[in-house]
Every structure is written in structure tokens, then in C-alpha cells.
Amino acid sequence: MHRRQLIAAAGALALAACAPDPDRRRPDDVEELRYGSDRSQFAELSRTAAATSLGVVVVIHGGFWRDGFDLSLGRPLARSLVEEGWDVLNLEYRRVGGGGGFPQTFDDVADGIDLLAETDLATDRVITLGHSAGGHLAVWAAALGTLQDSPWGTPRVPVTAAVSQAGVLDLAGAADVNLGGGAAQALMGGPPDASWRLADPAQQVPLPVPVRCVHAADDQVVPIGQSAAYVDRARAAGADAELVEVPGDHFSVIDTASEAWRSTLTVLRDL
């Protein structure tokens, strides 16, 4: 089997193992907020019981932007973050196969974060936290204020930092190796062209806010080179970006019992 086919097959098998689980049900104390009429245009807001919140974390789930995966993947993370003292917005969005793609998926992420303006939460510290495809969207959302020639250039709630967990941060590079069986091409509706600049974090450096890339060296789904190359490129452009290498595999970073997750909690506190 060709190397690119092996990468795609590994990604498909790993993602199938992390399909939505009935044990990831929405807790009773979570508030659902909607930002559109589509079934996927909503978010779940969880508030910390701590006397003073550390800020708001916007959790953006992965799944190679495909409709077979949903925000249930982010519920364990949200529970852990609330216990640590954060308020959490666990964001759903339209995915490929369910009305998503470019630009719909991007519209939803921008509009979903702006939901925070309609709550009573303080928005002076808003950190996006995304896994895999969600890592791409988390870092992309941190760039919105710089995309002045786009529909997303004036966010109501600016992102103040981004944490990517095994994120796909170079869309063109992902397309080049057919990552996820052509997931980036499916998201963008075709091969790389000029429109990809508005969607590709690797083409949007430097950002004016910190970016932290948490990634396992043994990740066989999204290679750590995706994060390492982004950090090198961002730092060369003068940005505040760091690679945090953790043990485990692609899904260790969203296992709340793992060392990789504990490292992520430390990164968030440091931000």
C-alpha cells in the first residue's frame, strides 16, 4: 500500500475508534445556546463553581471536519475544565456531509464564539482549545481580527489565545499527503487555490495572540510535523508560539486521565 494510503487508512481507523459514545451524554447542568437554525448550530455552556473564573475556554472538537463526529467528544474535556475553574463553551458546527465545508464551517465557528457576547460571562480572557480538525479551527479563530478582507474580520468576541491539540495547522501540507483521506480537500471543496489563504493557519502568521501546540510524537493520524512546522513558521515571523510535546498518540491529548491532558491544563493556566 502506498504511504499516503497508509496514512489515510490509519486516520480512518483511529477516528472510527473515537466515534460519538453514548457515555458522553450532556450533563443536566449544561445550558444549550443556539446561533442558527441548523441542527449543528449550537453550543453547550458550562459554568465553573469556583468563586472566580479563570476565563472562558471554547472547546472545538475534531473528526477531520466530517459529520460523523460531534461535540460529545468535548464533553469530558468540558467537565475537567469546569473543575479546574474555567467556564466552558463546547461548540458544535456544521461539518462536511452535514451542510459544512468552506465557508459554512468557518461561519459557524466565528458565530459560535460570538455567542459569548450574549452571556453574562467576562470575555477579557477567551481561549480556544481544539483537537485535530478542531485544533485547526481553534488557531484559525485566533486569526479572525487579522482577516480584514473576509466576512470574519470583526469578531464581537476576540480570542485571546489558542491551544491546538494535535491540530491540522497546515491545510495545504495536509492536502499534499492526502491526510485523513483527503479531508482538507473535502473541507475546502477542491484542491488548494487562492481561497485557502483565508482558511489555513500556516498562511496567517504571525498572530497577535499566543498559540500553544500540544502534540504527541507518536501521533499516527496527524503527524507532529504539522505542529512543529507551524511553530517554526510563526516564531520566524515574530509570533508567540510554542510546541509542547507530550507522550501518547493522537487521542491521548483528549483523554482526561492522561499525562498529555494534564500538560494541556498546565498550558492553559500558564496562558
TrEMBL record:
InterPro entries: AB_hydrolase_fold (IPR029058), BD-FAE-like_dom (IPR049492), GDXG_lipolytic_enzyme (IPR050300). Residues 51-229 form the BD-FAE-like domain. It holds the Pfam family BD-FAE. It comes from Aeromicrobium marinum DSM 15272. The keyword Hydrolase applies. GO terms for molecular function: hydrolase activity. The keyword Cell membrane does not apply. Keywords: Hydrolase. This is BD-FAE-like domain-containing protein.
